[in-house]
Amino acid sequence: MKINHSQRLHFLMVDSDEDDTILMQEAFAESTSLNHLNCVKDEVQLIDYLHGSGVYQDRQHYPLPNIILLELRAPTNKTFEALSILKESSEFRRVPVVIFANSLDDTLVANAYDLGAASYIVKPNTFDALLNIVKGCHEYWSMCARPVLSLKPKEIPALKERVILSTQPTEIRPH
User: Fold this and answer.
1) Burial 146-175, CB ≥16 within 10 A → b, else e
2) What is the CATH number of the domain that holds 122?
3) Has this prediction a pTM greater than 0.85?
4) Using one digit for the tens of pLDDT, what is the confidence trace for 98-135?
5) For the chain, what is the domain count?
């Protein structure tokens, strides 16, 4: 592991909502950090990206991420399955995964951390709040030592059709 505060951080965002993706891209652009953000729309594309499959073969344009931003989606919720697969992978288990959710739910928070999430963040309601999160992420993660990842990652399993955790209805609290 190495610490290089000036090293560019490579974030990979997994989010199916195009509006959220655009807002995050704008926040990264406005944050004036050295951060790099690539986006994919679902967990299947996440696995393809990490494998360097198909359109993601060019590591100059699609570098391996230092941090993965993973949207928590219900009710289909492949998020926890993808998180579990990442944390079971010898190559990617050390990559921090930050869960972005639309709401704060104690059960989902506990499940995310139990499966190895580094953080659980509720998506903010304003662009300024999102910009503060992006700046905070850069500030925090740029101070952390990060593992060096192989440019040719080992195989990680594909997503299965099973559901890892049940997401029973719970009370959603305003944030």
Assistant:
1) beebeeeeeebeeeeeeebbebeeeeeeee
2) 3.40.50.2300
3) no
4) 999 988 989 999 999 999 999 999 999 999 999 999 99
5) 1
